[in-house]
Design goal:
This protein has 493 residues and is mainly beta. Helix content is 4%, strand content 36%. It has one domain: Glycosyl hydrolase domain, family 43 (Tachylectin-2, Chain A, 5 Propeller), CATH 2.115.10. The protein contains 2 helices and 29 strands.
């Protein structure tokens, strides 16, 4: 099974002569979706450190036998139940007795840590004498930072990878080049293939992958420096090498350059997961540069609009007032690991780093993921009282038109029409507009919305199993969805 939990997709057929709905579509807001209660619910939360995951990774890192630190921290459940933790920049061992790193310690751009029960092991490229990134650099002064991953229909592991290059001018002198997909054998982790992913729009399509029945949603980031914007694409089935479509704000389009900004203020890495009868977005708040806040948002649709729930966790390590007392320490890229969700309790991770690389050698504990459990409480909105109490009294009968010419005498039958007047003619009955003649074409686009909770399975050793089902629902021609476009601020890697 894939790492995702029970995401039930509802399919929406956009009606019209085989064409996408664009300018005629009206924005579909979460509070206008009669089938979704999440948008109206009151949501509160509490958070606490997950000591089990924290201890597991700290102990493994301190041992110095393999991975000793890294960032990104995505995870995916393989078909056999093992967990693969996917890291970008990675330190290997050894680790000194005082928990510092030797300056000669190997530094890679990507690696895996495989979890089998409570046992961890490191997967990287190269040899013991000359270790290398699992996905080797494509060219000089270039590298791959990896993103979210998915298990395809053949059981292989597909990992999104963004190619970056550097001009050699310092810590921040690097830029994104293009998007790629690395496919690994899930048993041996042999690299089987590296293929290109859409890159024309400038969106990094590696922030999150969310399977939803017959389609898989791919979330990306348009990184404009101080401003960051979410984008959403989708592909049929669990293979990212298929044909992509992009949310335009009015419908789905095969032209990547038509991809629309969904919202701002998200980080380069975030998560959008099925939650109750909608979706839950977890992200670091990037309105403030290097903010310590992790925020949650909800939507009734996988492509938004997303409504803010609020701050769900403060990352305590950040800045001079943080737990390290070091102004160079920052945190970033929070997201969920949904295969470990139990009920409304979610496992989150985020990364910690320093603007001074020397700090990472002096203290091995800095450059590690932090694990947090967030317990959500979802209270449905109360049902509205009817505007009028029901009554058993008979309704007033319609006036009858007299069959004879009016007379000055009252009608002996008791007709309430005054003498000497003519009863008003009956008003025509309003009828619904004709349904469109055209049936939905085979190419009609789909939009998924989940129902139900993920299965239990949040313990450290019990990795759980994800299942999915599809619930199809047809919408009318006027029901297009559109997304909010706002500007906000990003925090760096």
């Amino acid at each position: 099974m894939s790492r995702r939990g029970c995401a039930v997709a509802a399919a929406t057929a956009l009606v019209g002569s085989g064409l996408l709905l664009t300018a005629t579509a009206q924005p579909a807001r979460a509070d206008a979706n009669d089938g979704c209660s999440l948008g109206q619910a009151e949501i509160t939360s509490t958070s606490a450190v997950r000591e089990d995951f924290t201890t597991l990774f700290d102990t493994y890192s301190d041992s110095g036998v393999g991975w000793t630190g890294g960032d990104s921290t995505y995870s995916v459940e393989l078909d056999d139940g093992r967990q693969v933790w996917v890291f970008s920049d990675t330190f290997l061992g050894p680790v000194n007795d005082d928990l510092s790193r030797p300056e000669s310690t190997p530094f890679l751009n990507n690696s895996f840590v495989v979890q089998d029960g409570l046992d961890l092991s490191t997967v990287r490229g190269g040899t013991d004498a000359e270790p290398d990134s699992l996905l080797p650099p494509p060219a000089e002064n270039s590298w791959y930072w990896v993103g979210d991953s998915i298990v395809d229909a053949d059981g292989n592991l597909q990992v999104t990878a963004a190619q970056f290059s550097s001009g050699g001018g310092g810590m921040w002198d690097f830029w994104w080049d293009s998007n790629h997909l690395a496919t690994f054998d899930a048993d041996t982790f042999e690299l089987l293939d590296v293929s290109d992913l859409p890159s024309e729009s400038g969106v990094q399509w590696s922030s999150w992958i969310e399977p939803a029945g017959e389609v898989t949603y791919v979330y990306g980031i348009e990184d404009a420096g101080e401003s960051k914007y979410m984008h959403v694409a989708r592909v049929s089935g669990p293979d990212l090498r298929g044909e992509w479509e992009y949310w335009t704000g009015h419908g789905w389009d095969s032209d990547e350059t038509h991809s629309a900004r969904v919202m701002d203020g998200v980080a380069n890495e975030y998560s959008v997961t099925a939650f109750h009868d909608g979706y839950l977005l977890i992200t670091q708040d990037t309105h403030e540069t290097f903010s310590a806040e992790i925020k949650a948002y909800t939507s009734c649709f996988p492509n938004g609009p997303f409504e803010e729930v609020g701050t769900i966790h403060q990352m305590p390590e950040v800045g001079a007032a943080g737990s390290y007392g070091n102004p160079n320490i920052y945190a970033y890229n929070a997201h969920e690991h949904p295969q470990f969700r139990t009920g409304d309790s979610a496992l989150l991770s985020y990364n910690v780093n320093s603007f001074e690389s020397a700090d990472l050698y002096q203290d091995v504990s800095i450059y590690r993921p932090r694990f947090v459990q967030v317990d959500f409480t979802v209270t449905p909105a109360p049902e509205e009282d009817p505007t009028e109490a029901p009554t058993d009294e008979p309704t007033e009968q319609p006036t009858e038109v007299p069959t004879e010419a009016p007379t000055s005498e009252p009608d002996p039958a008791g007709d309430p029409t005054p003498a000497g007047t003519t009863a008003p003619a009956e008003e025509p009955t309003a009828t619904a507009p004709d349904a469109p003649d055209a049936e939905p074409s085979e190419d009609a686009t789909l939009a998924a919305a989940p129902a139900g909770d993920r299965p239990a399975g949040g313990s450290l050793a019990n990795t759980g199993t994800g299942t999915g089902a599809v619930l199809a629902a047809a919408l009318t021609l006027a029901a297009g969805t559109a997304l909010l476009t706002i500007r906000r601020v990003r925090a760096g890697r």
